Amino acid sequence: MRKRTSLLTAALLASGLTPVALAAPASAAPSGLQGDFNGDGYRDVAVAAPAATVNGKSWAGQVAVVYGTASGLNPAKHQLISQNTTGIPGDAEKDDEFGDQIATADLNRDGYSDLVVGAPHEEAGRAADAGAVVIVWGSRSGLSGGTTVKNPQTLYGSYFGLSIAAADFTGDGKPDLAISAQSDTENPSSWRVRLIRGPFTKSGSTGRVSSYSPGVDKPALTAGRVSGDTKADLVVTGQKPNGHHLATAVYYKGTADGISKAASLRTGETAAIGDLNKDGYGDIVLGVPQDPADDPSASTGGKIHVIYGTSSGPSATRRVSLTQNTSGVPDSSEEGDRFGEALAIGDFDKDGYADLAVGAPGETFGDDTHYLASAGAITLLRGSSAGLSTSHPVFLTQDSPGVPDTREGGDTFGRTLLASDVNHDGRADLTAVADQENDPEGAVFFLPGAASTLYSTTATTTFGPTKVGLPSGKYTGFGADLAG
User: Fold this and answer.
1) Burial of 274 by CB count in 10 Å (0-12 exposed, 13-18 middle, 19+ buried)?
2) For a FRET experiment, which of 49, 129, 131, 452 has its CA 20 to 30 Å from that of 460?
3) Cβ contacts of residue 78 below 8 Å, gap of 6+?
């Protein structure tokens, strides 16, 4: 066994990947958990760094993968992946922004979760900003090797991979990819959602490809099961294609033949899907972080919309909106808070009801003598049989009990959020980003779920880019996206 481990370590070092400790015997079956790249039963987290320099190429982009353990994320167990990593298609080039968007799914159905990486500014031939999407394959030794997802329409400025959602939209047991791209760079309403059906293979073959027009500028994609069947649904958020920065959101229902536009939703720039009231249907939460000066439909400081799921999709009547001025929601609405800029849904206390984390990275604290602009905050709201509750909320800052570091102006704590059960204790854990911590580096905070307080006040940890092989004192976009 020692000889085999040594050979594997040598192979990983040769490929440019950080070795990952083997956690299971060779005969052990992979866990099949989403986000578990090495199949050891603990979900892992990929941290985007799309502004990272690679071999002197600025903004070429990298992705840091931090592996999960029984005690949570362990940055000592990591891989740093770029297009210069052996086995990854393409070459690291200036302004590719590899890792701008990331997603996870077991695309070849081998029991190991795979990592999907978007590089929306990738050049294809002479077509600048054509975009590219790469699958990095999971295995017992971690992520290794990659395959390019064919761009159905390679155009200048198509930005293929601007947003990615991975899920089984057709219900056939084979995960699919929904990918944003533009089909006519002269027409702002030409943004498309490309649905590429599974299965995916390492040789590059895929299922059928379809194209949909959501009527949304720069569409952001969020997948989840709203109607409670075996098919994933898709929420598309962004702006109306009129140049006025007005937020919009559209719901697509998963069908055996693909996805079908089923409803227009309330305005939304961000989205999350989860069962807040444990009725078997996924509920949609939309974030509108803008202020009214930017979008007349917005509220000062930002707001969220909750749209409850039914057997036929999102309810047309059971909808509620909340701001920080809503009774029971901590703090108060202030211009620039950007409440709702990040959303994550997971059962943090293991009571059977999914809970909601809301990031407000622009949250400001203090007074004229001690003013902390854009320190950032996260609000945790509990799920219940009646739906999202404002009873016993948790208001998190870097000064909260057990949270490492100190609240400082400009940290933007809560910029990016991910809910996933990393330590395999049955509770969702929250991974949060303060993208200007130790300006300009950024930092990731890991907050394990807990029974009564929703997050552990004793086991929360943090790490910056240097812990995963990225340089100190540099802006890398660390935490621009999270997946796991």
Assistant:
1) buried
2) 49
3) 18, 64, 65, 66, 67, 467, 468, 469
Which among 380, 225, 330, 346 is positioned nearest to 276, based on CA atoms? Answer: 346
Say how many C-beta atoms besides its own lie within 10 A of residue 187's C-beta.
10
Q: Are 223 and 233 in contact, with CB atoms under 8 Å apart?
A: yes
Distance (Å, whole) CA 18 – CA 144: 11
Beta bridge partners of 195: 178, 210
Structure tokens at 264: 């227009």
Confidence of residue 183 (pLDDT cuts 50, 70, 90): confident
**Nearest Cα to Cα of residue 234 among 279, 191, 265:** 265
Q: pLDDT digit string (tens) for 233-282?
A: 999 999 988 766 789 999 999 999 999 999 999 999 999 999 999 999 99
Tell me the pLDDT band of 1, cut-offs 50, 70 and 90: very low
User: What does residue 253 show for φ and ψ, rounded to 5 degrees?
Assistant: -90, 135
Tokens of 159: 């930005």
Both structure tokens of 425? 């204790």
Round to whole Å and give the CA distance between 116 and 344.
Answer: 19
CA angle, residues 390, 348, 229, in degrees to nearest 5: 90
Residue 313 Cα to chain centre, angstroms = 23
Show the beta-strand stretches assigned E in 122-184.
132-136, 146-149, 164-167, 176-182
Q: In what order do the strands lie in the sheet with 209-212?
A: 164-167, 176-182, 191-196, 209-212
Range list of β-strands (E), 256-312: 258-264, 270-274, 283-288, 303-310
The 8-class DSSP code of residue 27 comes to: T
